[in-house]
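Hey, quick one: can you model this chain's 3D structure?
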Amino acid sequence: MKVDSFSLPLSSPLATARETISQRSGFVVRYDHRGETGVGEATPLPGWTESLDDCQRGLNDAATVAAGGGHTDVLLSLDAASVPAARHGFATALLDADARADGVPLYQWFDSERHCNRVPVNATVGDGSPAETADAVERAVEAGYDCCKLKVGKRTVDEDVARVRTVRERVGDDVTLRADANGAWSRDRAQEAFDRLAPLDVAYVEQPLPADDLTGHAGLRGNGVGVALDESLVDRRVDSVLDADAADVLILKPMVLGGPGNAHTLALRAREQGVEPVVTTTIDAVVARLAALHVAAAIPDVAACGLATGDRLAADLAPDPTTVTDGAMSVPQSTGLGIDPTEVGTDA
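Sure thing. Here's the predicted structure for all 348 residues.
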């Protein structure tokens, strides 16, 4: 097991609840397994995963285990609850090697009966005035997207509803609109927003309430706008969210969940309970984006996913083998992740 650090500049700063991020730092993991070298990525994100230092310690400890044991011992040493990004890095490298050894793309390693060339993806539009928001959505639609996610919650409900209404009037009824409040609303404000967004045919609102309010989220369901949970999955098991009937949609980030295998398992578990999975990234480099793409490709009839995030980086670990056209991302059909491990560098 080999671990190398990297740091990649963002094309523009990324504002989170804790800080503004100008670069994404992490680790490339390489692991030899079944005669193949698999490659993985561990890119922690503050507020979502462990810190960069904790990620490094987790990977260093795992490398020590790998020197004296097998891959099962390494996976057991990496706790998805405490070091999810570190576990993602190793688990992805292991799965990449397994799929290479079996001669299949990773999504077919998850489901040998699947054949998927393209995965639908959404465009994300940030906060802005009604005209600015509508202009951004119109540009996305002209670029081929038929699903757009709008950031809401920083403004009043009146202002956000006006923004969504302007977008709907501009692009018509054929474009799927989603909203993401990042937990900004109280129960009363969320209910008001849902009541007013329903006539505008908003498919769902992502994280309308704070992460720990599962009861409040459950109470919002069934009123014409779906409830999607994202931040709520950071500090609790998905089973508790499903048992609370708190979501119509789960936003699954493989980096946050401890690896693509975990994300795929949780997607199928959600489907069994009538909850739709949507796979997204945490503004990752190309290796982790590909891993998330293969998870999505392994889910039949998956809804548009948040995978078209490569343009948020000013540099990357390797050339991206995917393209986004007409609102869908191409899925590599070569073995493993679809990227040559020898082309993955850390000196960008």
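One thing worth noting: Residues 84-102 form the longest helix (19 residues).
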